[in-house]
Specification:
By secondary structure, the chain is α+β, with helices and mostly antiparallel strands. The protein has five helices and six strands; from the N terminus they run αααβαββαβββ. α1 crosses α2 and α2 packs across α3. The longest helix has 13 residues.
């Protein structure tokens, strides 16, 4: 497990802006967060080095690409061992229909978010790819009626820093 990074209010502001638009040029980002471009670039590099920023990607609308039907599949696997979990996770992530997978606690072992062309494609994915696996004990699928976009990760008010980090690492009110 990674150590928690120490983030100040400016770091969080940078993260919020980049989560909403990762294509922002450094100069524009620096202006928005109130830093000199060189200081902003150093902070973004630090956030990458710390593993806070792990990548940037384009958000694609599945419907405009011919995959308008999204579903969430709950799956139970047995035996629930590390090797079975790793193998199943790798298999699911290799499928072109898979958008994301979550290994969870509770009634299901996995929640799989997929995008498919139509109900026939959904049925084929469920029967031919998931249910046919020997480790799958049961599954249920739920068609997504509405997808609300993920919002930027922001700290709750109780955890939001009220200070800016100094270059030396000490903080002062700001």
């Amino acid at each position: 497990m990674r150590e928690q990074a120490e983030l100040d209010s400016v770091d969080w502001h940078i993260l919020e802006e980049l989560q909403n638009d990762a294509t922002l040029p450094n100069r524009a980002l620096a202006e928005i967060v109130g830093l000199a471009p060189s200081s902003c670039l150093q902070r973004v590099r630090r956030l990458r080095d710390l593993g806070v920023i792990t990548g940037c990607h384009a958000v694609v609308d599945p419907a405009t690409t011919g995959l308008p039907l999204e579903a969430v599949i709950s799956v139970n696997v047995r035996p629930h061992t590390r090797s079975v979990v790793a193998s199943f996770r790798a298999f699911v992530m290799a499928q072109p229909e898979t958008r994301s997978i979550f290994h969870v606690s509770g009634q299901a072992d996995f929640l799989i978010h997929i995008a498919v062309a139509d109900s026939t494609h959904l049925q084929a994915f469920l029967m031919d790819k998931i249910a046919s696996r020997t480790e799958v004990r049961n599954l249920t699928s739920s068609v997504v009626l509405e997808r609300v976009e993920t919002r930027a990760l922001t700290p709750p008010a109780t955890l939001r820093p009220k200070h800016r980090r100094r270059a030396s690492g000490s903080a002062h009110p700001g």
